[in-house]
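INFO batch 0412 | record 1 of 1 | parsing
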Amino acid sequence: MQKATPVGTSSIRRHGPWVILIGLVVAALVIVGFLIFSSDSSGVTDQQRLASVQRVCGEWTGNSAPRLGTSSASTACALMADWMDQQLRNGDMTGPMMWGSATTMGSTCRQWMRTQSGASITTPPSLGWCNNMVNWMEQHINNWDDWMMNGNMMGGASSGNGSGT
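INFO prediction complete | emitting tokens
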């Protein structure tokens, strides 16, 4: 014999509050996940980081950077930054893929050297130039990971290594 449902009561009414509560929890988790994974918690854009890369490359060129083919090192930095900007805009690479570490920065520079943009100033590619640039950056950047968060490789006005040197 089947148990009869009392008049005025349905199974929907008994389970309704739980269904609504579970639905709200799922919606909240989706919103929180979207906010966490879709925003850059540092508030710094890849374009700002790229500007910092170009600025620091320029600082290196002002110190001891060798010419690259017939072009000045600062021209090479500008051309490399333009190429990196195109990689970002085309979605071919992300910022961290290009400059997330000294190793990736060096690899990106060497990859640029092999492009038409890099070849326009030096043939064959001067891979040693990239190594020198990255070595200088490593010596002058306090914390490679930290600059990714604050958006300025050298901190402050991008001069020196943050310790006055």
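INFO post-check: The longest helix spans residues 11-38.
INFO record closed
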